[in-house]
Protein backbone atom coordinates (compact mmCIF):
# COMPACT_ATOMS: atom_id res chain seq x y z
CA UNK A 1 0.00 0.00 0.00
CA UNK A 2 1.34 3.41 -0.90
CA UNK A 3 2.12 6.15 1.49
CA UNK A 4 -1.00 8.15 2.21
CA UNK A 5 0.62 11.32 1.16
CA UNK A 6 2.59 10.08 -1.77
CA UNK A 7 5.93 8.47 -2.03
CA UNK A 8 8.99 10.57 -2.68
CA UNK A 9 8.30 12.94 -5.49
CA UNK A 10 9.11 11.95 -8.98
CA UNK A 11 11.01 14.74 -10.61
CA UNK A 12 12.07 16.32 -7.36
CA UNK A 13 15.57 17.65 -7.82
CA UNK A 14 18.40 15.67 -6.32
CA UNK A 15 20.43 17.89 -4.04
CA UNK A 16 23.86 17.27 -5.51
CA UNK A 17 25.31 15.47 -8.47
CA UNK A 18 26.41 12.66 -6.18
CA UNK A 19 23.10 12.48 -4.36
CA UNK A 20 24.37 12.71 -0.81
CA UNK A 21 24.71 16.29 0.34
CA UNK A 22 28.08 17.30 1.72
CA UNK A 23 28.00 17.29 5.50
CA UNK A 24 28.57 21.05 5.48
CA UNK A 25 25.18 21.55 3.92
CA UNK A 26 23.60 20.66 7.23
CA UNK A 27 22.27 23.86 8.68
CA UNK A 28 24.69 24.22 11.51
CA UNK A 29 28.20 23.15 12.44
CA UNK A 30 28.31 19.88 14.35
CA UNK A 31 29.65 21.36 17.58
CA UNK A 32 26.33 23.09 18.18
CA UNK A 33 24.27 20.15 17.04
CA UNK A 34 22.18 19.86 13.94
CA UNK A 35 19.96 22.89 14.14
CA UNK A 36 16.27 22.58 13.52
CA UNK A 37 15.81 23.64 9.92
CA UNK A 38 12.05 23.66 10.34
CA UNK A 39 11.84 26.62 12.67
CA UNK A 40 9.30 29.08 11.22
CA UNK A 41 10.96 31.53 8.88
CA UNK A 42 12.00 34.60 10.80
CA UNK A 43 14.73 37.17 10.75
CA UNK A 44 17.30 34.91 12.31
CA UNK A 45 15.93 31.45 11.63
CA UNK A 46 18.01 30.79 8.57
CA UNK A 47 21.31 31.73 10.14
CA UNK A 48 21.01 31.13 13.84
CA UNK A 49 21.60 27.64 15.16
CA UNK A 50 18.41 26.61 16.77
CA UNK A 51 18.08 24.19 19.66
CA UNK A 52 19.25 20.76 18.59
CA UNK A 53 15.89 19.09 18.41
CA UNK A 54 15.51 18.82 22.16
CA UNK A 55 18.50 16.46 22.47
CA UNK A 56 20.81 16.75 25.41
CA UNK A 57 23.86 15.65 23.42
CA UNK A 58 25.11 17.58 20.42
CA UNK A 59 25.72 15.58 17.29
CA UNK A 60 29.45 15.23 16.86
CA UNK A 61 31.18 14.96 13.52
CA UNK A 62 31.93 11.25 13.43
CA UNK A 63 33.76 9.75 10.50
CA UNK A 64 30.65 7.71 9.62
CA UNK A 65 28.83 10.94 8.87
CA UNK A 66 30.99 11.34 5.79
CA UNK A 67 30.34 7.88 4.41
CA UNK A 68 27.32 7.19 2.24
CA UNK A 69 24.29 7.50 4.48
CA UNK A 70 22.13 4.44 4.94
CA UNK A 71 18.95 4.17 2.92
CA UNK A 72 15.39 3.24 3.74
CA UNK A 73 15.63 0.88 0.80
CA UNK A 74 18.60 -1.04 2.23
CA UNK A 75 18.01 -4.79 2.50
CA UNK A 76 16.36 -5.80 5.75
CA UNK A 77 14.90 -2.37 6.55
CA UNK A 78 11.37 -3.43 5.78
CA UNK A 79 11.72 -6.35 8.19
CA UNK A 80 13.33 -4.26 10.96
CA UNK A 81 13.78 -0.52 10.39
CA UNK A 82 14.80 0.30 13.97
CA UNK A 83 18.59 -0.07 13.68
CA UNK A 84 18.48 2.25 10.68
CA UNK A 85 16.27 4.74 12.52
CA UNK A 86 18.77 4.79 15.38
CA UNK A 87 21.64 5.50 13.01
CA UNK A 88 19.67 8.23 11.30
CA UNK A 89 18.69 9.95 14.55
CA UNK A 90 22.19 9.76 15.97
CA UNK A 91 24.35 10.47 12.92
CA UNK A 92 22.21 11.65 10.00
CA UNK A 93 19.22 13.52 11.43
CA UNK A 94 18.65 15.31 8.13
CA UNK A 95 20.04 13.51 5.13
CA UNK A 96 19.27 12.89 1.48
CA UNK A 97 18.44 9.25 0.77
CA UNK A 98 19.23 8.96 -2.90
CA UNK A 99 17.73 5.49 -3.56
CA UNK A 100 14.52 6.51 -1.79
CA UNK A 101 14.51 9.94 -3.45
CA UNK A 102 13.81 12.00 -0.37
CA UNK A 103 15.36 13.90 2.53
CA UNK A 104 14.91 11.86 5.68
CA UNK A 105 13.92 13.52 8.96
CA UNK A 106 14.06 11.18 11.94
CA UNK A 107 14.19 13.00 15.28
CA UNK A 108 10.95 13.60 17.16
CA UNK A 109 11.21 17.39 17.37
CA UNK A 110 12.27 17.72 13.73
CA UNK A 111 9.50 15.45 12.42
CA UNK A 112 6.92 17.38 14.41
CA UNK A 113 8.22 20.70 13.14
CA UNK A 114 8.55 19.49 9.54
CA UNK A 115 4.96 18.26 9.40
CA UNK A 116 3.70 21.63 10.57
CA UNK A 117 6.08 23.73 8.47
CA UNK A 118 4.17 25.80 5.87
CA UNK A 119 7.15 25.62 3.49
CA UNK A 120 6.70 21.85 3.29
CA UNK A 121 3.45 20.96 1.58
CA UNK A 122 1.56 17.89 0.41
CA UNK A 123 3.78 16.18 -2.16
CA UNK A 124 1.43 16.06 -5.12
CA UNK A 125 -1.67 18.13 -5.76
CA UNK A 126 -4.81 16.01 -5.78
CA UNK A 127 -8.43 15.93 -4.73
CA UNK A 128 -8.23 14.33 -1.32
CA UNK A 129 -7.97 16.46 1.78
CA UNK A 130 -4.40 15.47 2.46
CA UNK A 131 -3.35 16.58 -1.02
CA UNK A 132 -4.73 20.08 -0.61
CA UNK A 133 -3.05 23.15 0.86
CA UNK A 134 -3.84 26.76 1.74
CA UNK A 135 -7.39 28.07 1.49
CA UNK A 136 -8.84 25.07 -0.32
CA UNK A 137 -7.50 22.79 2.37
CA UNK A 138 -9.15 24.78 5.17
CA UNK A 139 -12.47 24.94 3.28
CA UNK A 140 -12.52 21.18 2.61
CA UNK A 141 -11.37 20.40 6.12
CA UNK A 142 -14.23 22.45 7.49
CA UNK A 143 -16.59 20.34 5.34
CA UNK A 144 -15.14 17.10 6.61
CA UNK A 145 -14.84 18.02 10.28
CA UNK A 146 -18.55 17.66 11.18
CA UNK A 147 -18.33 13.98 10.23
CA UNK A 148 -15.90 13.50 13.13
CA UNK A 149 -17.92 15.08 15.90
CA UNK A 150 -21.39 15.32 17.37
CA UNK A 151 -24.18 13.17 15.94
CA UNK A 152 -22.09 11.87 13.04
CA UNK A 153 -19.33 10.66 15.37
CA UNK A 154 -21.96 9.08 17.61
CA UNK A 155 -23.37 7.21 14.58
CA UNK A 156 -19.91 5.99 13.62
CA UNK A 157 -19.15 4.95 17.17
CA UNK A 158 -22.43 3.04 17.49
CA UNK A 159 -21.52 1.23 14.26
CA UNK A 160 -18.10 0.37 15.66
CA UNK A 161 -19.53 -0.95 18.92
CA UNK A 162 -22.14 -3.19 17.25
CA UNK A 163 -19.68 -4.52 14.71
CA UNK A 164 -16.99 -5.21 17.30
CA UNK A 165 -19.33 -7.47 19.26
CA UNK A 166 -20.57 -9.31 16.16
CA UNK A 167 -16.98 -9.97 15.03
CA UNK A 168 -15.73 -10.92 18.48
CA UNK A 169 -18.61 -13.30 19.15
CA UNK A 170 -17.96 -15.05 15.84
CA UNK A 171 -14.48 -15.90 17.06
CA UNK A 172 -15.65 -17.24 20.40
CA UNK A 173 -16.37 -20.77 19.16
CA UNK A 174 -13.11 -21.09 17.25
CA UNK A 175 -10.10 -23.16 18.24
CA UNK A 176 -7.67 -20.81 16.51
CA UNK A 177 -8.15 -17.54 14.60
CA UNK A 178 -6.22 -14.78 12.86
CA UNK A 179 -7.20 -11.48 14.46
CA UNK A 180 -5.84 -9.44 11.54
CA UNK A 181 -7.91 -11.14 8.84
CA UNK A 182 -10.96 -11.76 10.98
CA UNK A 183 -11.13 -8.70 13.19
CA UNK A 184 -8.72 -5.82 12.52
CA UNK A 185 -9.39 -5.58 8.79
CA UNK A 186 -13.14 -5.82 9.14
CA UNK A 187 -13.91 -3.67 12.12
CA UNK A 188 -13.23 -0.17 10.73
CA UNK A 189 -14.84 -0.87 7.33
CA UNK A 190 -17.86 -2.71 8.70
CA UNK A 191 -18.36 0.02 11.27
CA UNK A 192 -18.26 2.74 8.60
CA UNK A 193 -20.69 0.72 6.45
CA UNK A 194 -23.07 0.44 9.40
CA UNK A 195 -22.77 4.11 10.31
CA UNK A 196 -23.34 5.23 6.71
CA UNK A 197 -26.52 3.15 6.69
CA UNK A 198 -25.36 0.95 3.79
CA UNK A 199 -26.60 -2.64 3.63
CA UNK A 200 -24.74 -5.06 5.86
CA UNK A 201 -24.62 -7.64 3.01
CA UNK A 202 -22.49 -5.23 0.97
CA UNK A 203 -19.76 -5.01 3.59
CA UNK A 204 -17.58 -7.59 1.83
CA UNK A 205 -17.75 -5.73 -1.51
CA UNK A 206 -17.01 -2.39 0.09
CA UNK A 207 -14.20 -3.96 2.05
CA UNK A 208 -12.65 -5.28 -1.18
CA UNK A 209 -12.79 -1.82 -2.79
CA UNK A 210 -11.23 -0.28 0.30
CA UNK A 211 -8.36 -2.68 0.13
CA UNK A 212 -7.67 -2.13 -3.56
CA UNK A 213 -8.62 1.39 -4.54
CA UNK A 214 -8.71 3.53 -1.45
CA UNK A 215 -5.95 4.37 0.89
CA UNK A 216 -5.82 5.99 4.27
CA UNK A 217 -6.91 9.32 2.91
CA UNK A 218 -9.78 8.21 0.75
CA UNK A 219 -9.00 8.53 -2.91
CA UNK A 220 -11.58 7.58 -5.49
CA UNK A 221 -12.82 4.20 -6.48
CA UNK A 222 -15.13 4.32 -9.51
CA UNK A 223 -17.02 1.22 -8.43
CA UNK A 224 -17.56 2.63 -4.94
CA UNK A 225 -18.76 5.93 -6.46
CA UNK A 226 -21.20 4.01 -8.70
CA UNK A 227 -22.35 1.90 -5.75
CA UNK A 228 -23.00 4.99 -3.61
CA UNK A 229 -24.83 7.03 -6.28
CA UNK A 230 -28.32 5.51 -5.86
CA UNK A 231 -28.00 5.64 -2.06
CA UNK A 232 -27.07 9.30 -2.21
CA UNK A 233 -30.06 10.02 -4.48
CA UNK A 234 -32.39 8.18 -2.10
CA UNK A 235 -31.05 9.89 1.02
CA UNK A 236 -31.40 13.29 -0.63
CA UNK A 237 -35.06 12.53 -1.35
CA UNK A 238 -35.74 10.89 1.99
CA UNK A 239 -33.09 11.48 4.65
CA UNK A 240 -32.82 9.02 7.51
CA UNK A 241 -30.84 8.96 10.74
CA UNK A 242 -27.62 7.58 9.22
CA UNK A 243 -24.36 9.33 8.46
CA UNK A 244 -24.88 9.29 4.69
CA UNK A 245 -28.14 11.20 5.22
CA UNK A 246 -26.28 13.65 7.43
CA UNK A 247 -23.74 14.25 4.66
CA UNK A 248 -26.49 14.57 2.05
CA UNK A 249 -28.31 17.21 4.05
CA UNK A 250 -25.18 19.09 5.21
CA UNK A 251 -24.80 22.61 3.87
CA UNK A 252 -21.61 24.51 3.15
CA UNK A 253 -22.00 28.24 2.54
CA UNK A 254 -25.72 27.67 2.34
CA UNK A 255 -25.45 25.00 -0.38
CA UNK A 256 -25.73 21.22 -0.12
CA UNK A 257 -22.55 19.27 -0.70
CA UNK A 258 -22.30 18.04 -4.29
CA UNK A 259 -22.62 14.27 -4.86
CA UNK A 260 -18.90 14.08 -5.58
CA UNK A 261 -18.06 15.57 -2.18
CA UNK A 262 -20.47 13.24 -0.38
CA UNK A 263 -19.06 10.16 -2.04
CA UNK A 264 -15.49 11.43 -1.55
CA UNK A 265 -16.14 11.85 2.14
CA UNK A 266 -17.76 8.43 2.42
CA UNK A 267 -14.68 7.07 0.61
CA UNK A 268 -12.44 8.80 3.15
CA UNK A 269 -14.30 7.16 6.03
CA UNK A 270 -14.19 3.77 4.37
CA UNK A 271 -10.62 4.11 3.09
CA UNK A 272 -9.27 5.32 6.40
CA UNK A 273 -11.04 2.38 7.98
CA UNK A 274 -9.41 0.01 5.55
CA UNK A 275 -5.91 1.24 6.20
CA UNK A 276 -4.46 3.08 9.17
CA UNK A 277 -6.92 1.97 11.82
CA UNK A 278 -6.67 -1.69 10.80
CA UNK A 279 -2.85 -1.61 10.91
CA UNK A 280 -2.87 0.27 14.21
CA UNK A 281 -5.35 -2.18 15.74
CA UNK A 282 -3.15 -5.10 14.75
CA UNK A 283 -0.11 -3.56 16.46
CA UNK A 284 -2.19 -2.61 19.50
CA UNK A 285 -3.49 -6.15 20.01
CA UNK A 286 0.00 -7.56 19.43
CA UNK A 287 1.46 -5.25 22.09
CA UNK A 288 -1.21 -6.20 24.61
CA UNK A 289 -1.04 -9.94 23.97
CA UNK A 290 2.72 -9.68 24.34
CA UNK A 291 2.21 -8.09 27.78
CA UNK A 292 -0.46 -10.15 29.54
CA UNK A 293 0.20 -8.38 32.87
CA UNK A 294 -0.59 -4.97 31.37
CA UNK A 295 -3.56 -6.45 29.51
CA UNK A 296 -4.93 -7.82 32.79
CA UNK A 297 -4.74 -4.36 34.37
CA UNK A 298 -6.56 -2.81 31.42
CA UNK A 299 -9.20 -5.52 31.62
CA UNK A 300 -9.75 -4.56 35.25
CA UNK A 301 -9.71 -0.84 34.53
CA UNK A 302 -10.98 -0.12 30.99
CA UNK A 303 -10.31 3.59 31.49
CA UNK A 304 -6.63 2.72 30.92
CA UNK A 305 -7.33 1.68 27.31
CA UNK A 306 -6.89 5.16 25.80
CA UNK A 307 -3.34 5.46 27.18
CA UNK A 308 -2.47 1.93 26.09
CA UNK A 309 -3.65 2.78 22.56
CA UNK A 310 -1.65 6.03 22.47
CA UNK A 311 1.45 4.14 23.62
CA UNK A 312 1.01 1.56 20.89
CA UNK A 313 0.73 4.34 18.30
CA UNK A 314 3.94 5.87 19.64
CA UNK A 315 5.90 2.65 19.59
CA UNK A 316 4.36 1.10 16.50
CA UNK A 317 2.60 3.71 14.38
CA UNK A 318 0.69 2.30 11.41
CA UNK A 319 2.12 4.98 9.08
CA UNK A 320 5.89 5.14 9.27
CA UNK A 321 6.44 7.73 6.56
CA UNK A 322 4.54 10.91 5.71
CA UNK A 323 5.89 12.89 2.78
CA UNK A 324 6.13 16.58 2.02
CA UNK A 325 7.49 18.73 -0.82
CA UNK A 326 9.55 21.87 -0.20
CA UNK A 327 8.02 24.90 -1.93
CA UNK A 328 11.10 26.94 -1.10
CA UNK A 329 14.56 26.04 0.21
CA UNK A 330 14.41 24.96 3.85
CA UNK A 331 17.91 24.97 5.30
CA UNK A 332 19.80 22.63 3.01
CA UNK A 333 16.66 21.13 1.51
CA UNK A 334 16.29 22.54 -1.99
CA UNK A 335 13.04 23.81 -3.43
CA UNK A 336 11.01 21.00 -4.99
CA UNK A 337 12.69 18.24 -2.99
CA UNK A 338 10.68 15.57 -1.21
CA UNK A 339 10.98 15.25 2.56
CA UNK A 340 10.12 11.97 4.27
CA UNK A 341 9.03 12.50 7.87
CA UNK A 342 9.79 9.25 9.68
CA UNK A 343 7.06 8.83 12.28
CA UNK A 344 8.39 5.39 13.18
CA UNK A 345 11.82 6.84 14.03
CA UNK A 346 10.38 9.85 15.88
CA UNK A 347 8.24 7.69 18.16
CA UNK A 348 11.35 5.93 19.43
CA UNK A 349 13.55 8.98 19.87
CA UNK A 350 15.27 8.60 23.29
CA UNK A 351 15.56 12.38 23.49
CA UNK A 352 11.79 12.49 23.84
CA UNK A 353 10.84 9.13 25.39
CA UNK A 354 12.61 7.20 28.14
CA UNK A 355 13.31 3.57 27.20
CA UNK A 356 11.59 4.12 23.88
CA UNK A 357 11.60 0.53 22.58
CA UNK A 358 9.60 -0.69 25.57
CA UNK A 359 5.81 -0.96 25.38
CA UNK A 360 4.47 0.65 28.54
CA UNK A 361 0.70 0.98 28.48
CA UNK A 362 0.91 3.32 31.47
CA UNK A 363 3.53 5.71 30.06
CA UNK A 364 2.73 9.21 31.26
CA UNK A 365 3.09 11.06 27.96
CA UNK A 366 3.21 8.95 24.80
CA UNK A 367 2.30 11.99 22.67
CA UNK A 368 0.22 11.76 19.51
CA UNK A 369 2.66 12.32 16.67
CA UNK A 370 1.36 9.16 14.92
CA UNK A 371 -1.57 11.33 13.83
CA UNK A 372 0.67 13.99 12.33
CA UNK A 373 1.10 17.58 13.37
CA UNK A 374 -0.13 20.97 12.24
CA UNK A 375 -2.72 21.71 9.59
CA UNK A 376 -3.04 18.10 8.34
CA UNK A 377 -3.38 16.58 11.82
CA UNK A 378 -5.64 13.55 11.49
CA UNK A 379 -9.29 14.48 11.92
CA UNK A 380 -10.11 10.79 12.50
CA UNK A 381 -7.97 10.50 15.65
CA UNK A 382 -10.90 10.36 18.04
CA UNK A 383 -12.80 7.89 15.89
CA UNK A 384 -9.69 5.70 15.69
CA UNK A 385 -9.33 5.73 19.46
CA UNK A 386 -12.99 4.88 19.98
CA UNK A 387 -12.62 2.03 17.48
CA UNK A 388 -9.68 0.65 19.47
CA UNK A 389 -11.51 1.01 22.77
CA UNK A 390 -14.70 -0.70 21.59
CA UNK A 391 -12.74 -3.31 19.66
CA UNK A 392 -10.64 -4.29 22.66
CA UNK A 393 -13.59 -4.27 25.02
CA UNK A 394 -15.60 -6.55 22.72
CA UNK A 395 -12.70 -8.98 22.40
CA UNK A 396 -12.05 -9.09 26.14
CA UNK A 397 -15.74 -9.60 26.86
CA UNK A 398 -16.36 -12.29 24.24
CA UNK A 399 -12.97 -13.99 24.59
CA UNK A 400 -11.86 -13.82 28.22
CA UNK A 401 -9.03 -16.32 27.65
CA UNK A 402 -7.64 -14.72 24.51
CA UNK A 403 -3.91 -15.53 24.08
CA UNK A 404 -1.34 -16.30 21.40
CA UNK A 405 -1.62 -19.60 19.54
CA UNK A 406 1.19 -21.90 20.71
CA UNK A 407 4.51 -20.90 19.21
CA UNK A 408 3.15 -17.82 17.43
CA UNK A 409 5.15 -14.60 17.38
CA UNK A 410 3.88 -11.45 15.65
CA UNK A 411 6.15 -10.18 12.85
CA UNK A 412 5.50 -6.59 11.78
CA UNK A 413 6.18 -5.82 8.13
CA UNK A 414 6.19 -2.82 5.82
CA UNK A 415 8.19 0.31 5.22
CA UNK A 416 5.38 2.84 4.79
CA UNK A 417 2.36 1.13 6.40
CA UNK A 418 3.65 -1.18 9.08
CA UNK A 419 1.99 -3.82 11.30
CA UNK A 420 1.89 -7.59 11.80
CA UNK A 421 0.09 -9.19 8.87
CA UNK A 422 -1.22 -12.09 10.98
CA UNK A 423 -2.05 -12.53 14.66
CA UNK A 424 -2.73 -16.17 15.38
CA UNK A 425 -4.59 -16.58 18.66
CA UNK A 426 -6.40 -19.11 20.78
CA UNK A 427 -9.77 -17.43 21.37
CA UNK A 428 -10.77 -19.88 24.16
C1 LIG B 1 -4.80 4.92 14.12
C2 LIG B 1 -5.43 5.43 13.12
C3 LIG B 1 -4.95 6.60 12.31
C4 LIG B 1 -3.69 7.12 12.18
C5 LIG B 1 -2.41 6.66 12.87
C6 LIG B 1 -3.79 8.23 11.26
C7 LIG B 1 -2.70 9.00 10.87
C8 LIG B 1 -2.81 10.15 10.11
C9 LIG B 1 -1.72 11.03 9.81
C10 LIG B 1 -0.26 10.83 10.23
C11 LIG B 1 -2.23 12.07 9.11
C12 LIG B 1 -1.49 13.33 8.68
C13 LIG B 1 -0.88 13.20 7.36
C14 LIG B 1 -0.11 14.46 6.97
O1 LIG B 1 0.38 15.17 7.81
O2 LIG B 1 0.02 14.68 5.77
C15 LIG B 1 -3.63 11.82 8.89
C16 LIG B 1 -4.48 12.63 8.16
C17 LIG B 1 -5.78 12.29 7.87
N1 LIG B 1 -6.50 11.24 8.40
FE1 LIG B 1 -5.84 9.82 9.66
N2 LIG B 1 -5.08 8.35 10.85
C18 LIG B 1 -5.83 7.39 11.48
C19 LIG B 1 -7.19 7.18 11.36
C20 LIG B 1 -8.03 7.91 10.57
C21 LIG B 1 -9.45 7.70 10.46
C22 LIG B 1 -10.24 6.65 11.24
C23 LIG B 1 -9.90 8.61 9.54
C24 LIG B 1 -11.28 8.83 9.02
C25 LIG B 1 -12.27 7.98 9.15
C26 LIG B 1 -8.77 9.40 9.10
C27 LIG B 1 -8.83 10.41 8.16
C28 LIG B 1 -7.79 11.27 7.87
C29 LIG B 1 -7.90 12.40 6.96
C30 LIG B 1 -9.15 12.80 6.17
C31 LIG B 1 -6.65 13.04 6.95
C32 LIG B 1 -6.22 14.25 6.15
C33 LIG B 1 -6.33 15.48 7.00
C34 LIG B 1 -5.80 16.72 6.30
O3 LIG B 1 -5.03 16.59 5.35
O4 LIG B 1 -6.16 17.81 6.75
N3 LIG B 1 -7.66 8.95 9.74
N4 LIG B 1 -3.97 10.65 9.54
Topology record:
Layout (H helix, E strand, L loop, with lengths): L81 H10 L2 E4 L4 E4 L2 H9 L3 E2 L12 H11 L5 H22 L5 E2 H6 L1 H11 L6 H10 L9 H16 L5 H7 L1 E2 L2 E2 L2 H32 L1 H9 L4 H11 L5 E6 L11 E5 H4 L34 H18 L4 E2 L7 E2 L5 E2 L3 E3 L2
Parallel strand pairs: 2-8
Antiparallel strand pairs: 1-2, 3-7, 4-12, 5-6, 7-8, 9-12, 10-11
Helix pairs in contact: 4-6, 4-14, 6-7, 6-10, 7-10, 8-9, 8-10, 10-12, 10-14, 12-14
The structure holds protoporphyrin IX containing FE.
What is the gist of this entry?
This protein is 41% helix and 8% strand.
Pattern of helices and strands: HEEHEHHEHHHHHEEHHHEEHHEEEE
**What ligand molecules are bound, each kind once?**
protoporphyrin IX containing FE
CATH architecture of the domain at 137-287 and 369-426: Orthogonal Bundle
- Average per-residue pLDDT, rounded, comes to 81
Question: What do you see in this structure?
Answer:
The chain is an alpha+beta fold and 428 residues long. The protein has a domain at 137-287 and 369-426: Cytochrome p450 (Orthogonal Bundle). The protein contains 14 helices and 12 strands. The chain has helices at 82-91, 108-116, 134-144, 150-171, 179-184, 186-196, 203-212, 222-237, 243-249, 259-290, 292-300, 305-315, 343-346, 381-398; strands spanning 94-97, 102-105, 120-121, 177-178, 251-252, 255-256, 321-326, 338-342, 403-404, 412-413, 419-420, 424-426. A 5-stranded mixed beta sheet has the order 1-2-8-7-3, sandwiched between helices. Strands 4-12-9 form a 3-stranded antiparallel beta sheet. Helix 6 (186-196) packs antiparallel against helix 10 (259-290) and helix 10 (259-290) packs across helix 12. The radius of gyration is 22 Å and the shape is globular. Protoporphyrin IX containing FE (HEM) is lined by residues 5, 115, 129-130, 141, 144, 216-217, 268-269, 272, 276-277, 280, 313, 317-319, 322, 370-372, 376, 378-380, 383-384.
